[in-house]
Design a protein that fits this description.
By secondary structure, the chain is mainly α. The protein has one domain. Helix content is 73%, strand content 0%. Helix 2 runs antiparallel to helix 3 and helix 3 packs antiparallel against helix 4. It starts with 20 loop residues before the first helix and ends with a helix.
């Protein structure tokens, strides 16, 4: 019988098989992160809507660029909460994580502005309601990008 008391003599241990991306996205862990993300997203979304409303109603800015500024404001706050609570324990460095978060936010911003402009152009939906609809699509997409590629938690 072999003596494996020394670390160097121990037989290699196989790494557990990594689950598919689909399985990881539909896991309880991902669901918990999505729940925390939803709480933070709702809170910062209200801030973003407030910025949008103030810029349109008080500053007389056009709805589309005002939505962009509200989105950027909300996403900056979202990163701070995301790092501390949603994706806690990430090994990603702060500077790199923030840069990747901003890249993902820029992708989300592009989706937000294009869909928002299309809804405003082709429907009679109120601009604030349109912004809520668009946030559901863009928000879920940005969550997946951050969970998988930035914070590497899924």
């Amino acid at each position: 019988m072999a003596d494996y008391s020394s670390r160097h003599d121990a037989p290699p241990v196989a790494e557990p098989a990594r689950k598919s991306a689909f399985a990881r996205l539909w896991s309880l862990r991902a669901g918990a992160m999505l729940w925390r993300n939803t709480v933070v997203s709702c809170a910062v979304f209200v801030v973003g809507l407030g910025v949008l409303w103030a810029l349109v109603e008080w500053a007389g800015m056009d709805e589309v660029p005002a939505a962009g500024l509200g989105f950027v404001t909300a996403n900056t706050l979202h990163y701070l909460f995301g790092r501390a609570w949603i994706f806690r324990g990430t090994e990603r460095g702060r500077a790199t994580g923030y840069a990747l978060f901003l890249i993902n936010a820029a992708i989300g911003l592009a989706v937000t502005v294009v869909l928002y402009a299309a809804i405003l152009e082709f429907t009679a939906i109120h601009y604030l309601v349109a912004r809520v609809i668009v946030s559901l699509v863009a928000g879920l997409m940005v969550f997946v990008l951050n969970a998988v590629f930035n914070f590497r938690q899924i």
